[in-house]
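INTERNAL AUDIT FORM
Audit reference: QA-55
Scope: verify that the stored structure record matches its stored sequence.
Auditor: D.O.
Record contents follow.
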Amino acid sequence: MAHSRWKTLRERKRAELLAEPEDVAEARHEIRLSMALAQAVYARRSELGLTQSELADRSGLTQAKISRVEGSDTVPTLPLLAKLARALDASLNIALDGDSTEVTFTAHHHDAA
């Protein structure tokens, strides 16, 4: 067998060994989604100068629940996300496109009366 063919076979075997099982890839994707939300909540809360307890009071949630969301330890429901968006005075935007995920809070702009 020619060296170049042996090298190709070796590289193919290595790629097969390094291929991630589908369940692991799915878990990794879910973690990335959770982390994107956690970062967005933390960033908006910090922007408003709120503590976790203050955000909990504003949203009707517990400080522990806010901590779990920011620590990406939970998968929040849509009603919980709606409470967070209201409490953070923002619109929650989630863009899912293949492997790309973007989670942002867009602040509501209030006109001065």
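Auditor finding: record pair retrieved intact. Residues 26-107 form a domain with the 434 Repressor (Amino-terminal Domain) fold (CATH 1.10.260.40).
Action required: none
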